[in-house]
């Protein structure tokens, strides 16, 4: 009996260790400046960094040196990293147009993929990525900075669980900064971020995607009726090939979303205003939120502190690892493929509308 108990305890201990084994995670590409999220902080709960696949050796070794990471983490290609480092999951920090290629190479090998926002360069590419994910049974996650804001998650709970402000009627989302060149983005990043083919557009893609993602999530995945957009270039001497200013309007049966994407703000901003039947909620990167409710002639406004998110919900890499391990059902989350397929439909329609001047009907 003692032997049986010992065997069971040993088996249980081994199962715990196995379940908690870190996910072997590799990085594909280093031309997206957001790669410093992992270079500056290579250790995250639930994952083990196993390598960087970057064909530009000079760039890769320079970045690794600056981050005090060993050159042994560098691989010349995704194929080499897969063969030698054997990642279970990869994070894509390349141009948006290359996201599809990453999934094409990883999906048949059962390697899960997280890409930097947006999901894809256009809806056609997104659909192929979705098909590959379903065929080969992998997860595809899209990483947005705004996913990790505690205020957004509390706003969602207040609206969709607690019914604090009634049904959503209007959402205004403002994202951007003074411009990627103005804030000092690297030349490697600028070379494709300002390319209409490699990025699919300028500010309309770079920052319009935040609004498309958050709105779709708040609306629980509902597809809008129509999308219209205007885009322009206010600084042609700096951004001659792409827009630096865009406004996207999405229409639902009972709600409207307005996304202001700009490389012309005088300061950085990621602000979300949600208006319901009975009040509004303002949320951004700060933990403090503004709420206004009450009677028409006697409304009350106050500030509340959002409840901090706990790991892995507050960290992109830990979250991705938890998804890979099956510890989180991410189907309806901000970064999920389901939500981001609708977000890509909105973005794709917005780009088309901005070029034709016509409303794009989705249903």
Give a concise summary:
With 363 residues, the protein is α/β, with parallel strands linked by helices.
Compute the separation of the termini in Å.
Answer: 66 Å
Measured by DSSP, the beta-strand proportion falls in 15-25%
Order of helices and strands: HEHEHEHEHEHEHEHHHEEEEEEEHHE
Neighbour order of strands in the largest sheet = 14-13-12-11-7-10-9-8-15
User: What is the helix tally?
Assistant: 12
Average pLDDT, to the nearest integer?
94
Helical proportion, percent range: 25-40%
| CA gyration radius, whole angstroms | 22 Å
**Overall body shape:** globular
Low-confidence stretches: 11-18
Q: Tell me how many strands there are.
A: 15
Structural class estimated from helices and strands: alpha/beta
Major beta sheet, specifics? 9 strands, mixed
Write the layout of secondary structure elements.
Elements: H1 2-19, E1 23-28, H2 36-39, E2 47-53, H3 57-66, E3 74-75, H4 78-85, E4 89-92, H5 99-106, E5 112-116, H6 123-136, E6 140-143, H7 150-161, E7 168-176, H8 187-193, H9 203-206, H10 208-218, E8 226-232, E9 245-251, E10 256-262, E11 269-276, E12 279-283, E13 288-295, E14 298-305, H11 316-324, H12 337-356, E15 360-361
Parallel strand pairs: 1-2, 1-4, 2-3, 4-5, 5-6, 7-10
Antiparallel strand pairs: 7-11, 8-9, 8-15, 9-10, 11-12, 12-13, 13-14
